[in-house]
Amino acid sequence: RFLDEYAKHNVTFWAVTAQNEPLAGLFTPPQAPTIAFTAAQQRDFIAHDLGPALARSPHRTRLLMLDDQRIHLPHWAKVVLGNATAARYVAGLAVHWYLDAIVPPGCSLEATHKLFPDHFLLYTEACTGFFMFR
User: Annotated catalytic, 5?
Assistant: First the structure.
């Protein structure tokens, strides 16, 4: 429905993500409008709900998974893309950069790319000044 309503105004989307920062829901106040997903829950949502809905829609919108810190890689990718049903709906992985100093790219991005070379990695959220002391 989201894509349909925008299309009425000639606005299209090349991609959407299953959920922005799926683990943030575990840390936000209860009144915040968010939902928490584990990797397994996101896998199931993609495989059974969002993936099939996008595939049936007239939109050529691609689906990105994760959309959270790269610290969750490659575990998150193994859980979601390790499932053949979910993997066929996912075009790539959306990654945020805020905690990049904690996890070297070889342990996260490179390891994930080696495991799933047919799925692209795209930084989707970043800013400078995130840490007050910098």
Answer: no
Whichever domain contains 118, its CATH number is: 3.20.20.80
**pTM for the full predicted model:** 0.91
Instruction: Summarize pLDDT for 39-96 with one digit per residue, the tens.
Output: 999 999 999 999 999 999 999 999 999 999 999 999 999 999 999 999 999 999 999 9
What's the confidence (pLDDT) of residue 130?
A: 63
Task: Classify residue 132: in a domain, yes or no.
Answer: no
Of 21, 22, 43, 69, catalytic: 21
Rounded to an integer, what distance in angstroms lies between the CA atom of residue 88 and that of residue 51? 8
Contacts with 49 (C-beta within 8 Å, 6 or more apart), sequence order: none
Count structural domains, the chain.
1
The verdict on whether 110 is a catalytic residue reads: no
Assigned domain for 131 exists? no
Evaluate the CA torsion angle 17, 62, 43, 117 in order and state its sign. negative
59 is a domain residue: yes
